[in-house]
Specification:
about 0% strand; elongated; about 200 residues; 10 helices; mainly alpha
Length: about 200
């Protein structure tokens, strides 16, 4: 049984009033949704609140969910819209940060294999690259940032991103291309690559 089929069964149970089934969906996608929202909202406490609000909205809208898209695509769309509403209502824009997500680094199981190549110079360059990518991402317009996060961090397909962002697939491709170009432009001086070189 595929992941999507499992989700659909849980959704159907939740639609019939099984709160435990919805709880399983929350447990399955909470971390992913929080990670997505943290790219839009920097305050971890606010991210948790917005994620909780998104799950509440999803629960209330569950009777209308027909399974035309995957549950998590539908949930991410709700999450993105909830975050946008939060940003607008609080008059905020995502602040610039230079912090690299430490939980990702700490959770890396093959870290022992990397120790030999972790020279001070390489560590500094890696840190500078991470900071530059974060600054470049923070400087992107919201649509480009959301598209690149869904693709590169969440691993969604172009079709899933189009559904989550409620736009044509060609628009998704264009947004991801433009986001990658903007990030590459910021990285060129650091990596000493020529403007015509592509990654």
């Amino acid at each position: 049984m595929s992941d999507r089929q499992v989700d659909q069964q849980l959704v159907e149970r939740a639609q019939r009033g099984d709160k435990q089934a919805f709880g399983l969906l929350v447990a399955k996608y909470q971390r992913k949704l929080v990670r997505l929202l943290s790219r839009m909202i920097r305050d971890p406490a606010e991210v948790e609140d917005v994620a909780q609000e998104a799950f509440i909205k999803a629960y209330r809208a569950l009777p209308a969910f027909r399974g035309e898209s995957a549950f998590y695509t539908w949930l991410y769309r709700i999450g993105i819209n909830t975050a946008k509403n939060w940003l607008v209502s609080n008059g905020r824009r995502v602040p610039t940060t230079t912090e690299i997500m430490s939980e990702d680094a700490e959770g890396y199981s093959d870290a022992e294999l990397l120790r030999d190549i972790d020279t001070p110079e390489r560590l500094l360059l890696t840190k500078q690259i991470g900071e530059t990518v974060n600054i470049a991402m923070d400087g992107l317009p919201e649509e480009l940032r959301t598209a690149i996060v869904l693709r590169e961090i969440e691993g969604l397909s172009y079709e899933e991103i189009a559904a989550a962002m409620d736009c044509p697939i060609g628009t998704v491709r264009s947004r991801i291309f433009r986001a990658r170009e903007a990030i590459a432009e910021r990285l060129r001086p650091l990596l000493e690559t020529s403007p015509d070189k592509r990654w």
